[in-house]
Structure formats: structure tokens, C-alpha cells
Amino acid sequence: MSKLYEFQGKEILKKYKVPIPEGKAVTTVDDAILVAEELGFPVVVKIQTWSTGRAAMGGVKFPKDVKELKKVCTEFFKMKVGNFQIENILIEKKLNIVQEFFAGFIIDSKKKKPVLLFSSKGGSGIEEIAEEYPDSVFSMPIDVIKGLKAFQVIPHLIKAGIAKKLLNKVSGTIIKLYKAMRSSDARSLEVNPLVLTEEGKVIAADAHIVIDDYAVYRHPELGIEIAREFDRPPSELEKIAYQVEKNDYRGTFYFFQMKEILEVEEKYIGFHGAGGGGSMMSMDAVAKKGYKIGNFCDTSGNPPASKVYRAAKVILSQPNILGYFASGSGVASQEQFHSARGFVKAFLEEEIDIPASLRLGGNSEDIAIDILDKYLKDVGVTVVGYGKNDSPDFCMDKLIEFMKDNNNKPHKVKKAVEKDLSKYTYNFITMTGAVHINHDLCKACDNKVCIDACAPNILKLEDGLPVLAIDKADAKKGKCTECLACELECRFNAKAAIHVELPIPGFKEYREKLINKE
């Protein structure tokens, strides 16, 4: 689920005529001063984060003048939630609050309906309110066909203790909130507190909205960069990784950074899992040995070699990791030689400088291990493949040995180098990339190993040269599975005449920016 900041949620509420405080989100102290002076003091200043408990962490302040405001905003922009920096703060006119309520909607998976949650007490979480003031709380399932009407809500409001003179205002606001929720395809919408002011207005003093991941594409206006549930803004590398997953439905590629800046002394490992349970056991193996995972990555569900390749490139875009640990399910149903080829191509292109322990238990694991042994034996660091009979603890112990042999050298991220394609005389487009073949080199090749390596039989010989055996449109649709077998066989057993181009949007620019920072 994709969370919105408070200021983004309030823009949705405003669109549906739900009253909100005067205010604006800012990204600099100078802008904060301009907004506050325009609103007039006193104001409220709130950090914008997707995690809860802002007040408890000191993220809500009420400066009375410019001097206080400047101090507060300076502190806020230095704050971190977890390992990630606060980027936005919201400046609003302070309200004269008489009473606080809680109003929210959530999709109930069991009822398969939206449910209204309301309390005549606000300020705390709904669970705490329900425990302390059970008579103030009610929930009400909503028929999505018939919608929500004021006459349905009012009897519940009376029982919850809402004064008669407020019934129309409060029920009217609830109806508008429901419209905002439905129209934005939200999984949940929470206003805590919904307040009554001294002026007699009912205003949404806060707003937390979570959009259904599968509906994000329908709301480009919300500017959601990653359709996943995070508790903080996605990092630049996470955005790059998501573009890979977003545009390739084959298997899963999930990438999450634990920390953007990895310190060598904290002993971080690049982690590459496959499957939930196996990945959790493997992460435990890392932690038990006194190491930390710099990232969580999952490639499962039969991903093509090209997706594993891109995942490995992303993981190796993290400076200062000491080793690369791939370990997931020990009995994966996916053909593990696809993952092995993805690792080989990525590690060769990266000129990998840290050791890797790759546990590829599952179908065809022997073939996968053989591919790793054969193609990565001369890369300069130790890269070893393991199977289902090798436990995550054992594989992590071996990685520790390899890292010691490598003097625990931290990984140095290299500039992304683009291949010179001018000499490749034949090419065709694949689902996420392109295959380039240098026919001039092919003319001197005696064995044409690329043909035998192509299990889907999409290559054939024509006048002694490898060309597509299928229609180019079919190759683009996915008949070429991007298994990378042709490139690797040709590189090691023929003339290195084939290059499979697999672009990663934003990758080159990210690497350049990262290197320039060092």
C-alpha cells in the first residue's frame, strides 16, 4: 500500500470540500518563514513522515515568532526517521480547538467492505480510544453500491455522544471523507483529530491516506513513485529498482534499503533472497554472525536471468558492503540456472571486488552451481555456489572466510560503462532489452555454441550466421526469455560476438552522482 504525506492527503480532502487548516508544505527554512509570515503567528509546524507518533518524537511544534520558527525548522530538517532524512515540513495556522474527534475508513478484508470508524474522542490511536472510552466509538460497514448517507450515520453519532447541534456538520464531513476515500482508491483514510474550533467549524486537522497499490496507475496526479508500503520516502536506488519491477511482470524483484549510507565498521552485507521464509532464515544467519544487511532483495516466482542480473547490479550500487550473500528457499521451484546466469553477467560487468556466497537450492541447482564455478573462477575474488543441502548458516560462515581472505575490503562502486554497439551488425529487441550480434566475428566461429545454448530455439543459422528463428515482434513480446545463455556461451566458448543489452533507467546517472560524492 502506498502512503501519502499529510499535506498530500489534505489536498485530496480539499478537493472534496472537507475543511482543512490554512497552510503549506515547505522544503527549506526560508520558505517556512515566508509561509508563516503570510499566515500570521501562532502556527503549528509538523514534520512530514509516513510513520506514526510524530508528537512523541518531537515532530510537532507551536512556534510563536520567527525566531522560534527558524530554530524549530532547522532542527526538523536535520531530523531522521529511522535512517532517512526529513524532507518536508507542514506549516499551518494554529487552530483554536474546542473538541477533538476521530474519523476514519478502512477496507475490511473479511467483510469485503469499507468500514467507517468514528469516536467522539480524538488525539490518540483508535485502539487506545476504544479501550479507554468504549462508549465513544462505533464502526459501521458500508454498502459500496448504495454508498453512505447522513441518515445512516447520525444515529451512531448520537450514541457516541455528539451534540445535536453538531450532527449535521459532523455527518456531512464524514460523507465528504468517504467520497474522498472512494475516489482516490484508498485502502484507508484517517483523520485524527477531526476538530471543532471556537469558531464552530469542523476541520480536518490531520490526514493519513493509504492508496491501494493496484490503483496507483489510475492516479498519476498523486505523484506516487513506488507502489509499495514504506514508512519513509523511497531512496533514489529504490526508485531505480522499482522501475525494473514495474515494467517486467515475470517473477518478483523487491528491493529495500536498510540505510542509504553504509559505514564500513558496521559490517554490512549485500543481501539477495528468494522467497519469504528462506530469506528470513538467511537474514537470521547474517545477524547471528554479527553482520548487518545493507538491503533486502527478493527475486522469486521464476524471474528471468535478466531480472536477477538487474537486481545484482542494483545491490552492487551500494558502496562499502563487505560481501554478497544470496540465499533464499532451499527447494525453490524456479530453474536456478537462470539466476546463476544473471549473477555471472552482473558480476563480470561490475568486475566484482567482494566475495560472494550464493545459495541456489532448488531445481537444476547442480547446473547453476556449475555455471558459477565455470564462469566466475577467475574474477579475482571468491564466488561460490551452494545447494539445498548447504544451510544458510554454513553459507554465511563460508562468506565470512572469503571476506577475511579479501582483507574485509569494502566494495567500491564503479562507473556504469555503456557497451560500444557500433560493431554489432545484427540485433533484435527483447521484452526489456536487446540482443546484439557481431556477424563479422561469427564468420570466424567454428562451433556456433549460441545455437545449442538457446533452449527456446529462437536462434537459427542462416548462411552460417546466427539470426532470429522467430518473428521479431514475437521476440519483443517475450519469446526471447532473456536467459543470457547465448551471450555467456559465446563469450567463454566462441568469439564473444553476442551482447545482451539490459538497460536500467536512471542507473548510469545514479552511479555518476554516487561516485562524484565520494
What is the CA–CA distance across the termini?
Answer: 35 Å
Average predicted local confidence, pLDDT:
93
Tell me the overall shape.
elongated
CATH topology of the largest domain: Rossmann fold
Proportion in helices: 25-40%
What's the Cα radius of gyration?
A: 28 Å
Number of strands: 25
Q: How does the helix and strand content classify structurally?
A: alpha+beta
The description of the largest β-sheet is: 7 strands, antiparallel
CATH class group of the largest domain: Alpha Beta
The number of helical elements comes to 17
Unreliable runs, pLDDT <50, ≥5 residues? none
Count structural domains. Answer: 4
Structure description:
By secondary structure, this protein is of the alpha+beta class. It folds into 4 domains: 22-93, Dna Ligase, domain 1; 97-222, D-amino Acid Aminotransferase, Chain A, domain 1 (2-Layer Sandwich), CATH 3.30.470; 236-405, Succinyl-CoA synthetase domains (Rossmann fold); 426-501, Alpha-Beta Plaits (2-Layer Sandwich). The protein is 35% helix and 23% strand. The chain has 17 helices and 25 strands. The strands form 7 sheets. Strands 1, 8, 9, 10, 11, 12 and 13 form a 7-stranded antiparallel beta sheet that branches. The chain has a 5-stranded parallel beta sheet with strand order 16-15-18-19-20, sandwiched between helices. Helix 2 (29-39) runs antiparallel to helix 3 (66-78), helix 7 (236-246) packs antiparallel against helix 9 (305-315) and helix 9 (305-315) packs across helix 10. The longest helix is centred in the middle third of the chain and has 17 residues, at 167-183. It is elongated.
